[in-house]
Specification:
The structure is a single chain. The chain has 2 helices and 44 strands. By secondary structure, the chain is an all-beta fold. The strands form 11 sheets. Strands 2, 5, 39, 40, 41, 42 and 43 form a 7-stranded antiparallel sheet that branches. Strands 1, 3, 35, 36, 37 and 38 form a 6-stranded mixed sheet that branches. Strands 6, 7, 8, 9 and 10 form a 5-stranded antiparallel sheet that branches. A hairpin with a 7-residue loop joins strand 36 and strand 37 (498-510). It starts with a strand and ends in a 5-residue tail after the last helix.
Amino acid sequence: MTKVMVRLGAAGVLAVAGTAIGAGYSGLTPAATALRTAAQEAGEYQLTTAAAVVDGAGGSFNSVNIYVPWLLDSTDALQNSAAVANVNGVLSGAVSTFLGAGMDANATALLAGLGTTDAAGGAVGSNNVFLYEGRVIQHGAGFFLSDIVGDIADDGFAVWGARFNSSFGQNNIEFGGPAIYPPSNTAGIVAGATFNQNGVPMFDSSISGIGGVGSGAFLPTPCAIIKDGANYLVGMTTFGGTPPTAGTFLNGTGVWTYSGAPLLNPQTPTWAWDQVNTPTPAGETNGDARQSKPVMMTPDFGCATTDHYIMFGVGYSGSTPFTGSASNPLYLVVDRMPAGGAANGFADGHIYIDADGDGNPATASNDLRFVSGGQATGSGSFTCEGYDINSKGQVVVTLEDRTGAITIYSVLLYNPIISNCEITGYNAPIVIAESGQTFSDGLTTIEPLYTTVENPPLTFTTDFINPFSGLSIDNDGRVAYTAAIEGFYDTSDPNGDRLVGSTGALFIYDSATDSTHKIVQGGQNGTVIPNVVSGPSLMLGRFGNDQESDMFQSNGMSDTGGFLAVCFRNGGDTLMNDEDADGFDDNGGVLAPGGAEQRVRGVITVALGAFTTTPTCAGDITGDGMTDVDDLNQILSAFGTSVGMGDPRDLANNDGFVDVDDLNVVLANFGCM
């Protein structure tokens, strides 16, 4: 466990005046008040690096490319999680921003496209705004219209939730097709262009309970969309709501078939798994069942099938005997969606993956439960994270184990049992990563985060925090997740330590080689990304976790192609101070680290590059599979300098400096191929 005491005190903060907007935000209709400063830098950052093998024999990802196509001053807007897809070999993603009552006067709610940036070629762009919500305050309540990106089909057809709440006049599911959805660096797309078209609604807005003030249907972020011939299948867990709209939607999980025209009857999804028929453990009732948002896939089992598969979690509300609701499912349901639909998905056979491991949904432990992507209502309805399923039927999920004095979080991989072109069961899980684990490199540890909470007054307890987020698995069996690797604590309170900051990392687990690779870091010791056009360097801010609105999510990695999109954000409970005395302000990413600070948040996109199963050579900085003169030159050009922890040139002890220890790694392995 990394436990670092930090000082609490004032720190100088340089105020940065507003300037002209960046190219990617120009031409909004209606005209938007300018976003400030950081937006000008978006699209100018690129880092080519090699992934570090932290566990297992490993192969290597050659020439990992990291871009920063989306960048905001920390006061411009809050942001939601980003989704990404491989569209004809091109990294294509989306992200949205939203506003709170206390946001800066220049803040604007947007929905934008992400890609790479082609920064080395001098292009400024890929932050293409294609839906503009403005900043009209609804009913004087301090809430704003906004959108939350859900998923992207493999043709670039994006789906999002039109939010915030029906009480404020916007409540539907919307789409943006390839005609308005801008993949990056493709013919006909001008860097920084804007696309100001409203989304196409999924449900007819005249239906009671959908659009308009006072409607009561609860529609979460739509986390699953797949192609089905000429149509799209959209999966959601919904809640029928309260009068006057009770019954508009089922209370449970449904999959709707969308052919381009708004649907007139949301009560009849093509497939349904309703709450009243949900299998329950002993002592519980169907009324307490709470299903979490689904993920879907089209199978690739090496045999002909037109079926699809869905997976979602089931938890329970109330106080006895189980708690946690949809945010902590006791089991996952994996079910086949046969062509033509099914009136009740629970009636035609399905598979359970139990958190307690006994394969029986009638028994459960309240202290062994999964971590989900949330439910149809509340703050947990914003994100898509916690578990995923790929086209081979492999499932990845986070397990929360509260049976001991310390809560343990584990990332589990379940491999399917397939018979007659159907999933018939699952093997025992493989533990990919676990809180408190130090990987085989001896340097990288998954930080078991915790903090002291006071509830009720004068009663202090330790709250354990899930260090993982994301859990996406692609069709090659590679699992992506972010995890905390350092924790920074205020140890001065006699009632207990308080978590005030962290460093996180993006990891890729390759199931074929049983190896884990660290890609990039964010937070207190975030990776520094150079501006290759002009302007300051950027230190990445913290990667969100524990159902924060802009965490890495299950749709943050493409099904194919090795593309990722990861949000970085404010530093947490740091009160905008330099609490760890490292010269950086801890409230977000930092432009020009070590100098006059400008706090920012944004999104990085990652292209992993080709993977080879050839064991990685120690000292291979360039990622070409060899330790040679190119790697030696990398060390010599940075010798004696501080490059930041996580830099690939910092080979020996991850101390952030390039020195004789790092040189010796290259020399000892020189000529390795």
